[in-house]
Amino acid sequence: MADFDFDLFTVGAGSGGVRAARLAGALGKRSALAEEWTVGGTCVHRGCIPKKFYVFASHFADDFEDAAAYGWSVDGVRFDWPTLVAAKKKELKRLEGIYEANLGKAGVEILRGRAVLEDAHTVRMGEKTFTAENILIATGGRPYMPDIPGAEHVITSDEVFDLAELPRRLVIAGAGYIALEFACIFRGLGADVTVVYRRTGVLRGFDEDVRKAVQEGMEAKGIRFVFETVFEKVEKGPDGLAIHLSNGDVLPADQVLMAAGRQPNTEGLGCEKAGVELGVGGAVVVDAHLRSSQPNIFAVGDVTHRINLTPVAIHEAMCLIDTLYKDNPRSPDHEHIPTAVFTQPPVGTVGLTEEEARAQFEQVDIYRARFRPLKHTITGREEFVMIKIVADRVSDRVLGVHMVGLDAGEIIQAVAIAVKAGVTKAQMDATMAVHPTTGEELVLMYTPVS
Hints:
Elements: E1 6-11, H1 15-26, E2 31-35, H2 41-45, H3 48-69, H4 81-105, E3 109-112, E4 116-119, E5 122-125, E6 128-137, E7 141-143, E8 169-173, H5 177-188, E9 192-197, H6 208-220, E10 224-227, E11 231-237, E12 240-245, E13 250-253, E14 255-258, E15 262-264, H7 271-274, E16 297-299, H8 310-325, E17 339-341, E18 347-351, H9 354-360, E19 364-371, H10 375-379, E20 385-392, E21 398-404, H11 408-420, H12 425-429
Parallel strand pairs: 1-2, 1-6, 2-3, 6-16, 8-9, 8-14, 9-10
Antiparallel strand pairs: 4-5, 5-6, 7-15, 11-12, 12-13, 17-18, 18-21, 19-20, 20-21
Helix pairs in contact: 1-4, 1-8, 3-5
């Protein structure tokens, strides 16, 4: 056997890379983790965690307003952007310290700097080279930025959390979950927000009833949508930015956010030199066991550009360690992955959309409810909940559950367990309701609407 410096060399200290490196180290393997930025990756520093903090912050304007309906007097309310940014930075620094401490306890060697593959077993970091029996690519992804005039004036999700001041006018390109979440965050904090999208409708790929409910809810919040157009150029003037659209419109703004997708971080990584095949957009092509075209090089998470979610990257990392070091070959299970979109109103979804179900099953039953949650019967706020169940009429199995509205993300996590376990509609109907709750409607829809 060749004498390598490490048993596993992981490139990228995001959620998937950290989990794999730590588990390998805890098993007594010589594990190294290379990172040129910060430990924790996108989720901790530029994604899920800071975004959720800002989502919390953006809800308080409505909360203060709703409090009055319940007898509270809230005077002198104001928002301070620098306070939020500082609080976020402090907490993320704490989380990074926890990640590093846990890696250290597992015996993982953290190497700071950019790692480049030299061949199938060699990684270069500056003037140093390291060899490894197995290499894991976990470099994640980065925001897509089109090549348009004035792109230097456009920010991405990498910069949006640390702006010097809160923009009064924000224009966002894209209508996926990232774009919409930021639209709701900044609208909730008081900004005037316009969303520009090259197609029609939001959240492409989600259930049609979800898409409709989210767009209607966001429009009710005052967010403006401009469809069937794209950015042509961005100009900077004395009064801010001017965004020229392909439909001829010019939108004024203080900040412009590009949130039209992400792409894998493989540029300059040395994949070609190491014999690692790249697919569309530079994604690392892997088999069912996360192995690349080079037998000892693997990849997990967003760099494979399949299902770009933190829990998926972590799950894939755990499967990889089982395969490599526990004599238990395990493939990631990508079926029935629940997800939430933290818009206002929020989304929770698991399983097949109605469109997907009708394409796969001959007879499909749809159960749908729309109602105002109890909280807003007093506040009078025009907010509604939409819950939809998709079931196979023949087997009675629940194929998908989709929810828009209060607590959707929290509720769908519990529902996903049942869907994953193969729950039937009859079993849901036989479950007693918890009253009064938003989620009780899940077990009270007895009659299909179609």
